């Protein structure tokens, strides 16, 4: 029985590894990405459709653009894949300009949203693996380069969000994905590390097995998070929080950054900020200020955190 | 007679296509570009000649730099053309540091300005075509890449103006060439589309004919615009305004962006801006401020219906 | 005797030219670079170790990253040199997280600081020469490209400090290394010009002689400057100030930029700013505002000028 089970899993893993992302999974990725942008870019979409389109493309193809720049390959390359761009453009048009916001409302329905979110996460595995493989071709032995490119490819939309925001005329330098990593960025980094270790054979696993495990983990996590957020509006504590907290307390003496992210540190920060000069523009101050205005600018936060921007909308559409 | 006329036009087009931009037309381009920079960079020219020179070079060679980055070719390449850089540097020096602002004053005379503006527009044709050809070498079939590179090459100075301003210590993130396209950017985009279509033979025209027509259109438009602006100080309505308005009303439901750009919306914007906080930097915060004025409306609803209510807008477009 | 002396200098120059920077000189470069970052990044190091690490790597490898981008070579390449990155990472960890700030305090001791500063300056010669040689391979005849790449390679950390600050959530667009060049940036530019002239044989010197002279000049200047700053806290007037002043007065008519940098021009600037339109956000205005707050935000200035950031700290550690 056990052997049979193993064989079936092996077959499943093989099947998954030979799976094509195009068109259905790519489509799900485009829909989820553009919908994440929707709340922040609605006004821009009326003023300048071109800027809105460009922003959407950066969300959809950000990973390829960023990893292209990092490897000195043309960042314009994603545009050369006409079919993907056409697909993403159609999604963009329907999300922003469809009468009655049809596509937007449909995709906000819980079951469809769960399916789309899950499918988008599947594309992440392929993208991270694509990045690691691409880097491996140029830099055979360099683990760090593989991790960097795999990460950039998988979490590109988030990492270049500063520049995507700039296209829309928004500029919030006080925070970024490195200062305050969102969950998708973290999980992509872990995936990049795993696939890079597998590629350099430090991790004695077969590639298709790792793909299966990582994909299942991604999808399960995303679906459960989305479901709990949409149904219970409960607090979505990161599954990494305890581990992170331990690592930080062990390695990076001083206050735990997890605590910092959950306002434990705020008092001391405020004190330090109060004594700082007026020209100071450090991240902590702005963060403190932002949280003090918390009641008022809920909408702003949704914009700051593109990967979570769907929260508010889904409530409305329920 | 007709045949003869056609033959002459054909000869003219051939002659134009074999025309060299160097040195006279390039010189005109450098003069007009540096003079455009003059007003904004006068103070910087006294504080740091190097930053001023770098800014000027970005204005003169911005297209080549931007298309280089987009195709992963060295952005430093324009510097390798010593003669052009020398010419541009001499122009820069004479404009900024010539006693009595001689070059600046001369080129502000109406006849000379008309000639220079016209000559600069001629270089645009060559640049757009150069960009499209360059992209065609790397990406044979990709219309979109050709358009993007042709556009970047022809309107580069405008598209990278954010970074050029940053060199001078100026930072205005709330607007950019994509959000609010200027006339040269628009006309260059149209040119890039036309030349890309010609290159892929979707447009059944010969290249030198298209070059002639596009150049004549550019020059005529520019000269008439410059003349009317300098003599009458009349309002320079874009020749594309009606077409744009129709396209936007048809495709992008909601208010015409042209209206948004030309003062229809301005009153309400000004009001809202006046009440915004001093730290306000761009559309997102403006919107937040607006929602604060809204009383206790849910901020999210305010986000969904910014600027103009969707309902009102669809009525208007009906 | 004279001949013998010449022979010895020649041997010394040859010995120096064949010297390897790895590991001791590179180590000194990493220590000095990370310590320069320390004051500005302390808070970030508690909030996000990853952003802090990335910032540190940009300080240590900024020149290679910048020259890579300028020559369309992968900016991620420095990561592929595992040993260097590991060394820099260990330094970063010890500086920021070592209990009792051991490494930081040790390296602030005058004799050790003199040695480290001197050794860091030695690496500058190698970097500038490396950049010039790298550019010479791609662009045989272009003096300007060689100067640009040599400069970028040698002073990269300073030139990309805007982006390094952005990683830490700090954004101060009103100044940059081109607008207000620091001493290391200037001396690197001069070095790049000299080595480029030598490479194109306009300067009839042998390479190893030039390396010796430039290195000795760099080290002597740095050591004397560091010593005078740490012991006397005297004003560190640039050795180029008189020459610069003459050049500016001759070539760039109007006020001398050196005067502008030392507040002579300030009154007129303030007047001009007061009469400027409200949309104006030029550098001079900000500079004036900054200098008005001068007494309060000394700490901030240390952050703006990474290459000088040790001033404040060294006082503290005395």
TrEMBL record, chains A, B, C:
Polar residues bias: where? Answer: 289-302
Q: What is its main location?
A: endoplasmic reticulum
Location relative to the cell: Endoplasmic reticulum membrane
Q: Which reaction does it catalyse?
A: K(+)(in) = K(+)(out)
Q: Where is the composition biased (Basic and acidic residues)?
A: 304-318
Is Endoplasmic reticulum tagged as a keyword? yes
Give the protein's function.
Intracellular monovalent cation channel required for maintenance of rapid intracellular calcium release. Acts as a potassium counter-ion channel that functions in synchronization with calcium release from intracellular stores. Activated by increased cytosolic Ca(2+) levels.
Q: Which family does it belong to?
A: Belongs to the TMEM38 family.
A single Gene Ontology CC annotation of this entry is: endoplasmic reticulum membrane
Q: How does it sit in the membrane?
A: Multi-pass membrane protein
Q: Which UniProt keywords apply?
A: Endoplasmic reticulum, Ion channel, Ion transport, Membrane, Potassium, Potassium channel, Potassium transport, Transmembrane, Transmembrane helix, Transport
- What Pfam families is this protein classified in? TRIC
Q: Where are the transmembrane segments?
A: 27-44, 51-70, 90-116
The molecular function terms in GO held by this entry are: identical protein binding; potassium channel activity
The answer to keyword rRNA processing applying to this record is: no
What is the protein's quaternary organization? Homotrimer; conformation seems to be controled by binding to diacylglycerol (DAG).
Listed name of the protein? Uncharacterized protein
Q: What is the species listed in this Swiss-Prot or TrEMBL entry?
A: Periophthalmus magnuspinnatus
* Region annotation Disordered: where it falls in the sequence: 269-318
Q: InterPro entries recorded for this chain?
A: TRIC_channel
């Amino acid at each position: 029985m056990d052997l049979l089970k193993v064989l079936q899993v092996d077959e499943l893993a093989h099947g998954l590894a030979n799976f094509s992302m195009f068109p259905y999974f790519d489509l799900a990725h485009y829909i989820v990405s553009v919908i994440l942008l929707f709340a922040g870019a609605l006004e821009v979409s009326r003023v300048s459709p071109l800027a809105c389109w460009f922003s959407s493309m950066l969300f959809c193809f950000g990973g390829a653009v960023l990893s292209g720049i990092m490897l000195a390959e043309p960042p314009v390359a994603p545009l050369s894949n006409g079919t993907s761009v056409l697909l993403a453009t159609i999604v963009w048009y329907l999300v922003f300009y469809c009468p009655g916001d049809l596509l937007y409302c449909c995709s906000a329905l819980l079951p469809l949203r769960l399916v789309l979110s899950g499918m988008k996460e599947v594309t992440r595995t392929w993208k991270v693996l694509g990045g690691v493989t691409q880097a491996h071709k140029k830099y055979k032995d360099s683990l760090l380069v593989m991790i960097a490119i795999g990460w950039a490819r998988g979490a590109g939309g988030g990492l270049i969000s500063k520049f995507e925001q700039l296209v829309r005329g928004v500029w919030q330098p006080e925070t970024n994905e490195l200062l305050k990593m969102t969950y998708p960025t973290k999980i992509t980094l872990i995936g990049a590390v795993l696939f890079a270790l597998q590629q350099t054979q430090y991790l004695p696993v077969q590639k298709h097995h790792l793909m299966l495990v990582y994909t299942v983990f991604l999808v399960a996590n995303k679906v459960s998070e989305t479901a709990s957020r949409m149904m219970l509006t409960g607090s979505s504590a990161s599954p990494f929080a305890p581990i992170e907290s331990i690592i930080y307390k062990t390695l990076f003496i001083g206050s735990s950054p997890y605590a910092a992210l959950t306002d434990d540190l705020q008092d001391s920060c405020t004190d330090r900020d109060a004594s700082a000069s007026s020209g100071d523009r450090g991240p902590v101050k702005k963060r403190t200020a932002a949280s003090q205005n918390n009641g008022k600018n809920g909408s702003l936060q949704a914009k700051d955190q593109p990967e979570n921007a769907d929260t508010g909308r889904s409530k409305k559409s329920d």
